[in-house]
Amino acid sequence: MDRGPRAAREDIMQVTKFGLLAGLALGALVAATPAQAQVTLKVWSIDGVDRPGIADTYSKEFDDANEDIVVEYRGIPFDEIVNETLRAFATGNAPDIVSFDNPDFALFSSRGAMLDITDRVANSEIVGKAQYFDGPLNSVTWDGKLYGLPKYTDTIGLFYNKDLFAKAGITEPPSTWTELADAAAKLTDPANNIYGVTFSARAGEEGTFQFLPIIQMSGGGSNKVNTEGAAAVLDIWKSLIDNGYASRDVLSLGQWDSTGAFNSGNAAMAISGPWEIDRMVEDAKFDWGVALLPTIEEGGQRSSALGGFNWGIMANTQHPDEAFRLLEYFVDQEDRIFADFGNLPARGDIELPVTGVTKKDEALKVFQEQLQYAQPRGPHPEWQKISKAIYDAEQQALTGQMSSMDALNQAQATIDGIYNQ
Amino acid sequence: MRFLNALRDGVGFDILLVGAALLFLVALAGAPLVYNVLMSFQQVDMFTLGALFRPFVGFDNYVAVVRQPEFWLVTRNTLIFVFGSMTGQFVLGFALALFFAQNFPGAATIRGLFLVSWVMPGLVVGGIWSLILAGDYGVLNVILRSLGIIQANVFWKSDPAFSIWAVVIANIWLGLAFNMLLLSVGLAAIPRDLYEAAELDGANAFQRFWTITLPMMRPTIGAVLSLGLIGTLQQFDLFPALTEGGPANTSNVAGFWSWQLSFQLYDFAKGATVSVMMFLLVLFASVIYVRSTRHEVRG
User: How far is B51 from chain A (nearest CA, A)?
Assistant: First the structure.
């Protein structure tokens, strides 16, 4: 159908009118923005997905306080953040700043996906390498260069039920694994559904998280797992399960559920970390305390797991200077992270505020001491494969499918293959 | 105009329909499949993740997967999981279908209620079974103990002798209703007069089942079993909720392993390799199924 020239002219007028309106609107927008060019920073982390956390809160604060920088924050669930970032990096849509669980960090830093910030940190007035604990710092270091900063940290220790200890006539928490087994034997009370000890030897990162410290205590590490000492402790753990001093379900329970049994009084000791404290203050109807993780021999080498997240600037960022400014802001606010979010700073120079809850304050002191011995998992770009070799070996030994030494030897063969490729 | 007419009916229209279906199939199933097969012959890392053409490594990934210490264990578990689940789902589903075919009052309503298990998300089912199968405070252990069947608790999820069966039990429960429903439909389609005639001829219940029900149900059974195979090989949700493949891979199956390799260990090539192996297994089963039903179609 032909609408004729008149209709066409009307159309053109219509378009012009719209154009005028659009131009006005655009002008208004331009007037509202400050003269300097705006920089947009994308920040990804797991915070803010289920509850407010460090990254989402501080990103918003920084965004509000800085006219020249817009921070676009995106919360991504824990299970997806590595995959999502891998995909984004491969397709050139990576964020400027991202936060990973510390064993996942080397996957990115070792392949040049993270920005080398060694010099920036050295020249910074806010950030300094010296303030951080060694463990967290190692997890952001690759090949001697600094590719990120620790965000917060955590570790594991031994929770014990002081009431049950008193009842069994034990005065001190165990300091070696042999002592722990003896104590567990005395504390176990099947008639009242009480296990001596509970821990997590699950088929997953949590299993490695709790077992790698044993390997490190025996002089091994991520690249050397088949040590006599680690095999000996595995044998002790196996005997705990076989004798009924620990539930066989430690093989499938995560740390949170495993410690739940401790809170309800069904286990006299539990290996877990500071994230348990608030719930324990609430749920545990008995007197409890925290001790450092036992060692292999009396006075032997200490170690513990290193948990927590890291920050990093991704290598393909268009705005490294602004991104580093944001990173500095995050670091500058670290004295608030414990009070606001219950996260432990990865550094010793921040005094944790006293909460007034005696058990909580005492527990935190122990965990802060334990943190000095915490060692990272890896760092290695293929950490997840190493981790699987370790927790598979642990489970094979604990279920009696292989002797502890054979299981660790098999894991070592797998790990050698990963390190030597 | 003639072109448009040809499109509306006749050969042109047929081609249009076939073309649309094929395009759909190629885009949504074919391309990912080819991409997956391609990936299993390549070396994949984070820098080449988005690329289509990556370093070609021949059968290296296949050799590496077979050489993994857990390969044969996973193969064994996959077979136990598939045949255990399918047998359980089918036998119990058939028994229930026959039971509800008796048309007692309320049969149809109760049969409908069984669908609850089928509409529930796998993760929820896994979470519930995780509680039921828990070692220390699990409901199943309490029941078995009070019946005197077991003396000590069975650690379903943590004992290597039981872990794969824990997932099989949950999966049977999950797929039972679907099997029962399909088989009920098949049963309803058998003409009543066949049974009446057989009864007049003096056939007993077992003979009627063996000579009428089973032969008449053959196409339905074939469809149920092949859907069961596919559904079981696809089953994923129950594993993270119940055992995570543990302890020490004793409940790990090919599907979960493939996911684990790709998205937990970030070894995308090996993950793709395992899924191609699974695809070949399903292909093999489908060929057997098609061959076994071919004469049915002709007859």
Answer: 8
> How large is the average pLDDT for residues B20-29?
91
pLDDT, one tens digit per residue, over A206-234 is: 999 999 999 999 999 999 999 999 999 99
Closest approach of A394 to chain B, Cα-based (Å): 8
CATH topology of domain A39-154+307-375: D-Maltodextrin-Binding Protein; domain 2 (3.40.190)
ipTM exceeds 0.90, yes or no: no
Asked if residues A316 and A154 have their Cβ atoms less than 8 Å apart, the reply is: no
Judged against a pLDDT cut of 90, whether residue A26 lies above it is answered with no
- Could you tell me how many CB contacts below 8 A there are between chain A and chain B? 97
- For residue A34, is pLDDT > 70? no
Mutate which of A93, A252, A253, A314 to test chain B, going by most B C-beta atoms within 10 A? A252
B60 Cβ under 8 Å from any chain A Cβ: no
User: Against a cut of 0.80, is the pTM above it?
Assistant: yes
Mean pLDDT for all residues in chain A: 89
Taking CB atoms within 8 Å and a gap of at least 24, the contacts of B77-82 are: B77/B164, B77/B249, B77/B250, B77/B251, B77/B252, B77/B253, B78/B233, B78/B253, B78/B254, B78/B255, B80/B164, B80/B165, B80/B168, B81/B164, B81/B167, B81/B168, B81/B171, B81/B232, B81/B235, B81/B253, B82/B229, B82/B232, B82/B233
Q: A305, A256, A288, A326: which is closest to A44 by C-alpha?
A: A326
Q: Which residue has the tokens 């093989």?
A: A251
Fold of B69-298: MetI-like fold (1.10.3720)
* Mean pLDDT for the stretch of residues A282-305: 95
- pLDDT tens digit sequence for A151-182: 999 999 999 999 999 999 999 999 999 999 99
DSSP 8-state class, residue A21: H
Structure tokens at B209: 């089942």
Q: Where are the domains of chain A?
A: 39-154+307-375, 157-305+382-419
| CATH number among 3.40.50.300, 3.40.190.10, 1.10.1670.10, 2.40.110.10, domain A157-305+382-419 | 3.40.190.10
- What's the order of all strands across the beta sheet hosting A157-161? A269-272, A157-161, A288-291
